[in-house]
Amino acid sequence: MLIVPVAMAVVGYVLFRRLLFDLVDEVWDDGDTLIVKNAGVEERVPLKSIINIGYSLLTNPERVTLTLRDAGPFGKEITFMPLPRPFSFRWPSRNPIIDELIERVDQARRRTV
Q1: pLDDT digits (tens, 9 = 90+) for 19-39
Q2: Residue 108 in contact with residue 48, Cβ under 8 Å?
Q3: Overall domain count for the chain
Q4: pTM
Q5: Which domain holds residue 78?
Q6: What gap in Å lies between CA 73 and CA 5, rounded to an integer?
Q7: Cβ within 8 Å of residue 105, ≥6 positions away
Q8: pLDDT tens digits, 30-73
Q9: Which of the residues 55, 56, 60, 67 has the least number of beta carbons within 10 Å of its own beta carbon?
């Protein structure tokens, strides 16, 4: 009788840990930097210090993972959810916010070279 609720609790914990526990509270765009806030701690991440932008198309909520050149208060990876994309008949398609961020990071890297 207790096996099913315990199994559901374990599966729920694993899903929450995998999909939600590593998300930061807020990420704001500030021109050439991103302002990242989590649990009262704030970090400014220059776009040129982002090595890679990973994203998931088939998860709900969508997730974006920034891999940084140097570890900061949140570590070497910062994961967040972008704003929901506008409705599109092309599914799966990338969120336009992600496309814009990829372009801006590439431009920031080119300016420093």
Answers
A1: 778 899 999 999 899 999 999
A2: yes
A3: 1
A4: 0.78
A5: 23-112
A6: 37
A7: 47, 48, 50, 53
A8: 989 999 999 999 999 999 999 999 998 777 778 899 999 999 99
A9: 60
